[in-house]
Amino acid sequence: MTGPHVPLGDTLQERFWHRLEHDPDGRALAFYEVGSPLEWRSFAEVHADAAAIAIGLAGRGLGAGDVCVIVLPSGEQAAMTLLGALLLGARPLLIAPPALLGMNSDLPRILTSAVERTNARVAVVPSPLRRDPSLLADAVSRGTSLIYADEPLSVPGELEPFLPAIDDVAALQLTSGTTGLAKICVWTQRAVLAALDGMAEAMELTPRDVCFNWTPLYHDMGLVNNFLTCLSAGIPLVLMDPHSFVKHPTDWLRGLHETGATVTWSPNFGFAITAQRLVPGELDGVRLDGVRGFWNAAERIHARTYSLFAETFASLGVRAEALKTNFGCAENIGGATFTLPGQTYAVERVDGHRFRAEGVAVPVDGDHPDTITIVGAGKGHPHLEVFILDPDGRPLPDGSVGEIALKTPSRMEGYLGDEEATSEALFGDLLRTGDLGYLREGEVFWVGRTHERITVRGKKIDPSDFEPVLFDIPGLRQGCFAAFGVADEESGTESVVIVSEVREEAEVDHETVTSRIRREVVSRMGVGVADVVLVAPGTLTKTSSGKRRHRHFKQMYEAGALDALVLVRAE
């Protein structure tokens, strides 16, 4: 199959056709599984597979400009369905499938809402939903064609090329949705290509690189930073099943070794559990000297995590300068800031009292009695500027904490059907991210979310500040917690509530754990904890991007809906 003669191109579709014409035999995609031989697929093979699915989707009524909702596990089927929709000129919207479909799954509600808001023409959904047609009856009644994951969809044949305009909508993306229904970001072709080019330039990607990705395609780290960037720039990409990673994290490192990968991505928790779960001897023979970029993003980056990862795997060739950080968001279409090539990530120790009370980050030396360690998230890519704004939208000087705003060519067009939220996010020529941070000579230091901060007697505390404290308490599942403030009319301020999962219910002395949480938080952070709630493993579900849902569980707590193992109240 040959495509039209086009330059590198200003749209995703043009770039796909360009790769097909100029490098049909080049390595494009491989799917990694421990113990199975790695089989690279060329651009021609990937294109043929995606084109066959595109023809099948067209047969179900999908056309250019239509929305195609994809609810599939992150893997080969999801990747090919995504590409097939794009080749048709349709607008894909990926939604995370639940690990288990059952009574507690929010998928029917989320999917029905997405179909309603987008007027989706086609939705590719998990096969188990076929057992109860009533779950998606509202979606079907709106004229959406449901395709179940186990239905054959590929139809071999010739696909007529579709080349959209540069300002056409390219795709839709859900925000993280830490509470309530997620917003839907609208991405234009122009903005998507600006994002891909900015990231590739910031990371100095070349066709000699090999990218290895285990993060899901329904999150923009997997979709944009990896999948679209690599296919657009001609970078060979290896995909690993996210569930396989969670079950056995060190398979990620074995995969890096076996595929010769040079670049990889993970949220902070991925680095933590990979180091924590290492079994002596299981990575014998694995070398990681060739990995020039371990990119850490999507949640707060902890210096302790990166130090543990570096120390644990130094003998395998992990180099300090290979540890990189990034900040991004769906509203900006992927990564915005990056650790500079040839440098390692930045770290600051700042005066904890002034940081919490005054909202300023003042660097201190090692003898200071109250310090907070903050990891930098890099500097804006070559086509992007970063600003820190006060609540009135005025720029703040270096070291002052405020809202992170971006002057960026890759910002979204807006939130679909939500003019009020769009007007709040698009502030003149800036994108207000809703994230908090400060600048130091161009380096961005991320410190939290604007709507999640807890205020206790004037101290500003981000929920992620509690993680290093909880990390050291035996019996708790590391990283599985929510922290929030609730109004306390008697004291006139907010009271702190911590909800945490325990490792195993029968093995945890609840009274000892709750007492230690209180003691450690007071000792190390200078604030009391009003309530401690211990819950069963798996209770505190995260967003599709691995972010903690502090506000969501606050709402459940206030409604009395948490199924607590133990609830301890201050006298």
Q: How would you describe what is shown here?
A:
This protein is an alpha/beta fold. 29% of the residues lie in helices and 25% in strands. The protein is built from 16 helices and 29 strands. A nine-stranded mixed beta sheet has the order 2-1-10-9-11-12-13-14-17, sandwiched between helices. Strands 18, 19, 21, 22 and 23 form a five-stranded antiparallel beta sheet that branches. β24 (454-456) and β25 (459-461) form a beta hairpin. α1 packs across α7. The protein is globular.
- What ranges have pLDDT less than 50 throughout 5 or more consecutive residues? 1-7, 100-104
Gross morphology is: globular
Can you count the beta strands?
A: 29
Strand arrangement within the widest β-sheet reads 2-1-10-9-11-12-13-14-17
For the sheet with most strands, the description reads: 9 strands, mixed
- Helix-strand category: alpha/beta
Integer-rounded radius of gyration = 24 Å
N/C terminus separation: 74 Å
How many helices does DSSP assign? 16
Mean pLDDT: 89
